[in-house]
Amino acid sequence: MKIAVLDIGGTSIKSGEFTDGRLCNIREADTNAQKGGAWVMERAVEILEEYQGFDRIGISTAGQVDSSKGCIRYANSNIPGYTGMEVKRMMEERFHVPTAVENDVNAAALGEANFGAGREFQDFLCLTYGTGVGGAIVIDRKIYRGSSFSAGEFGGIVIHPRDRDASKDIFSGCYERYASTTALVQNAMRLDESLCNGRKIFEHRTEAKVAGIIDAWIEEIVLGLVSLTHIFNPSCIILGGGVMKQKYILDKICNILYNNVMESYRDVNIRQAQLGNTAGLLGAVQIALDLKGD
Predict the structure, then answer these.
(1) Do 89 and 151 reside in the same domain of the chain?
(2) What is the pTM of this model?
């Protein structure tokens, strides 16, 4: 069986094909998301047309996804007009093969569950730190989606209630505003405008003021993880996002977290995501493999 896969993000659309147990022919193209959802779908079709002879399609995508219908329940302004897009129907009508669609963070978690850091665990949490904070809940190696396919919005945990004003910003006072890579960069740029991404920040980690900004940010990350550890009692928490490749972050998180949870919760494994940019594609492979009708 050959599976064509897409990972649709606000910046780029990654693609590939999975055959003989291997992901290959991986490509990447600009999304040009500002042109809107209809444009993004046209571009996705064009990309899939570059692959030949596939039997199924798996799609990981930004936005809240009704995975049973394969449509976008909600997407923010990063992709205008994407809300309501019937992705599954459009692809099946065009290519005449079964298609599965899933939210990108959920797909990344399924990728890690089946091909990466989560392979030895039946249940785990997965968080990604980037523009925001994304989350996924894996139970018995399946995604727990909640009543409206939106479970795992860990970025919405309130960690600073005194900063909260939902009338102006629904995420005010919430985890995402303090623990995302965006938050780290914003704080670093107040010190030095040249520290405009995670890589540049960590190049200056030995400087006392930069180190202080990084350590304060890591403490914000741990605040959310303490709550999640006590609520879910997970065997494993997998942390993803480009900045999480820094070993210093993982070591520091473990040192702080284990001192801030009850002793009976300290056996939680904190793992770095293994699949990098291919996590969403491999998750898309898995949802396509799970389609009924094998």
Answers:
(1) no
(2) 0.91
